Amino acid sequence: MAYMCMIWLLLTQFLVLSTKTGAKVPAIIVFGDSSVDAGNNNQIPTIARSNFEPYGRDFSGGKPTGRFSNGRIPTDFIAEAFGLKPTIPAYLDPEYKISDFATGVTFASAGSGYDNATSSVLSVIPLWKELEYYKDYQKRLREYLGEAKANDLISEALHLTSLGTNDFLENYYAFPGRRQSQFTITQYEDFLIGLAGNFIKALYGLGARKMSLGGLPPMGCLPLERATNLMGGNECSERYNKVALEFNDKLKSLTIELNKELPGIRLVFSNPYYAFLHIIRRPSLYGIEVTSVACCATGVFEMGYACNRDNLLTCTNADEYVFWDAFHPTQKTSSIISNYLMKTVLAQFL
Hints:
Largest sheet: 5 strands, parallel
Shape: globular
Strand order of the largest sheet: 2-1-3-4-5
CATH topology: Rossmann fold
């Protein structure tokens, strides 16, 4: 209880961020899944898309960009907090050039994970391919800025990762005959931690020095998981939340290990779990009314193409909801959690 009270104090204290100019971080570079995909999946053949209404209805111009949100996503708010720009563009978006990507870019793909088997479920971009895009980005950046300036930007840029939820919910638990036949849940957590460590080392080998390893949210509280938790009275699935906590502890330990192992690295663990859970448990403190279902359609299972603009059940004010669709937070929730992480973890890079 005392810990949750501390979370509340921090959240209220840091709800509004002041934009800082002349930041020490010249760019935000992002890897991950739908929590940080700004539209890369628009350019690949997959059903894991959100480039249609009502997605993006609260985004600038009411444009559905491919973000799984009614508006902006966490990395957009983080980039703005660093005084860079209000949105981070998707690397595969043809509307943007290397001059745009020089201050921030996301390689993330909705439906992806640490495990290659996870990305194959919805035929999305696997993490190894995100890394290949990053190498291509570095090449273009050197051509644009010159070798020395590009290398400086890469070493000073903040590299953010947000992965793992799909590995558990869309892979391990969704397909029992696949990874469950190979690993116990503890073994699978350790398998993913190994992949996460290798990925950070790969970024380090490419010149990245400032990095944030993102943790899991209370994934048992996602509307989709609550809807299927019939035996638990449609409350948060404690089984899934327990896995999230275990995995986050291992990510934190990995961060400590890699900081000791890799000279010059500044790796932090950004944990959204408790801040997210506090919003769900005490929504009225944030002007939020609905926590168990999402804004879109019935709010129980819809996401992606099931979340369509013609559904009359979709809420009119997403700011009153924790979740936008059955799997993703609203812009307001993303803003609160991003601001919290910014001030408690990422501020050291300012």
